[in-house]
Specification:
Length: 94
């Protein structure tokens, strides 16, 4: 999370719910924000956290739209993650 210089006043809220067969996890912080949210999901030298999460979701679920990032610079960042319901193969020959 983008703490910036003032680490005493940041808050992080996590919301969890289910919608359209997906587990939804939304994380909102009151950090410094992100100027370019699209670049935040790419690999860069500043940080690897969001890109790492994006790649792991793609590898696990094969979907490229499971993470969304929105931000207001100087106020907050919101990261929304979707985890699709996995269908387990419960056939007797496994």
């Amino acid at each position: 999370h983008g703490f910036g210089r003032d680490r005493s006043s940041i808050s992080i809220r996590i919301f969890i719910g289910i919608s359209d067969g997906c587990l939804l996890v939304t994380i909102k912080d009151t950090g410094v924000g992100i100027e370019n949210t699209e670049k935040a999901l790419e690999s860069n030298k500043k940080g690897i956290g969001l890109n790492n999460i994006r790649r792991r979701l793609e590898l696990q679920y094969g979907d490229h739209n499971l993470i969304k990032v929105s931000s207001i610079v100087g106020q907050c960042t919101i990261v929304a993650l979707r985890f699709p319901e996995e269908v387990r193969d419960e056939s007797p020959d496994r």
